[in-house]
Design goal:
Order of helices and strands: EHEEHHEHEEHHHHEHEEHHHHHE
Number of helices: 14
Shape: globular
Radius of gyration: 21 Å
Number of strands: 10
Structural class: alpha/beta
Mean pLDDT: 76
Strand content: 15-25%
Length: 331
């Protein structure tokens, strides 16, 4: 994210909580180093890694939110935190509105919450371009109003579940089990409903493959690769109500690492999740009815749809959202 781990405008926080820190707690460690006078509470269901060394100002707590609010009221009770952070807990959290209300209650007046998560869906710049929608952030194009709204609201033609039938089954099963696979784009609304002021909302593109880095490199070589060519602030109107400005970030050289290291493993990651949620069994039954496309069944479909080659060809990406909310000051 252009070397920006934390987007909230923190100033000398004293108490910080990361929810879903993971065994190695990289963000908690970063925060503890960045704010040595603060105390960081790192929360996760798993224990901390015994092979990792952590700063002395981190305390680990095993448990789940929002249950910890009632069981450890002194630590996580009302108005106890200057900053709360979570990232990529889409598969570890249900009942998001209740969770975000609990987090809002934990914040001190003027405190910040930052949530970074995805919409479990894939989109294609190439398909949008074929439909006449420009989504590459080229501000020199004067006909981008529709493209801006489409990109922010994900109304990009020719993409998503219509193209990937297994994604439709995946999302259907997830919502049936109370997971919100649109949580990235829902975060701002849930924060506002919890009484928070949304101060930052950004959408980053996570590429399938290295195509964003390659494109930005080529644009830079042509003299147009500055950061302003990769991002744009826009306003989005949904249901007649103006939402906060959204900054769409289109890439950077750091996406090469993601495209090279993570994208090839997406097949294994999502195959494992599909099987764990029982979707694999559903898809196998559908294939028996002639609905499977790949010769090897639904796993071949996942392999094809998330392949780096297809990602580069279609310029596929997954939307990754960063949303920062602030609790209102008293008085």
């Amino acid at each position: 994210m252009h070397n920006t781990t934390i987007h909230a405008p923190l100033s000398h926080p004293l108490t910080i909580t990361e929810i879903g820190c993971g065994p190695t707690a990289p963000v908690s460690t970063y925060l503890a180093t960045l704010h040595p006078t603060a105390h960081i509470h790192a929360v996760d269901l798993a224990p901390p890694s015994p092979s990792s060394e952590f700063p002395e100002n981190i305390t680990f707590t095993r448990g789940a939110m929002p249950a910890l609010v009632s069981t450890d009221h002194a630590t996580f009770g009302p108005s106890t935190q200057d900053y709360v952070f979570n990232r990529l807990i889409v598969m570890g959290m249900t009942h998001w509105p209740e969770y975000i209300c609990a987090v809002a209650d934990m914040l001190k007046p003027g405190g910040y919450v930052e949530m970074q998560d995805i919409d479990v869906e894939w989109y294609s710049e190439a398909a949008a371009a074929a439909a006449g929608v420009v989504v590459n952030g080229d501000s020199s194009n004067n006909n981008n109003a529709a493209a801006d709204t489409a990109t922010a609201h994900f109304g990009i033609n020719g993409t998503g579940a219509d193209s990937f039938p297994w994604v439709h089954s995946f999302r259907t099963a997830a919502f049936a089990q109370n997971y919100d696979f649109d949580i990235g784009s829902n975060l701002a609304r849930y924060m506002r409903e919890a009484g928070l002021e949304v101060v930052v909302q950004k959408m980053y593109k996570w590429p399938v493959g290295e195509w964003i880095a390659d494109r930005d490199r080529d644009r830079a070589a042509q003299g147009g690769g500055g950061v302003h060519d990769r991002q744009r602030s826009i306003s989005v109107v949904r249901g007649g109500e103006k939402e906060v400005d959204i900054e769409i970030i289109h890439g950077g050289e750091e996406t090469r690492l993601y495209g090279r290291e993570v994208a090839p493993r997406q097949v294994d990651i999502y195959t494992h999740m599909l099987e764990g949620m029982g979707v694999g069994e559903i898809l196998s039954k559908e294939e028996g009815g002639g609905k499977g496309k790949g010769k090897g069944g639904w796993k071949d479909d996942v392999l094809r749809d998330l392949s780096v080659e297809a990602g580069v060809r279609d310029r596929r990406f997954m939307p990754f959202w960063v949303v920062v909310g602030r609790k209102k000051m008293v008085g």
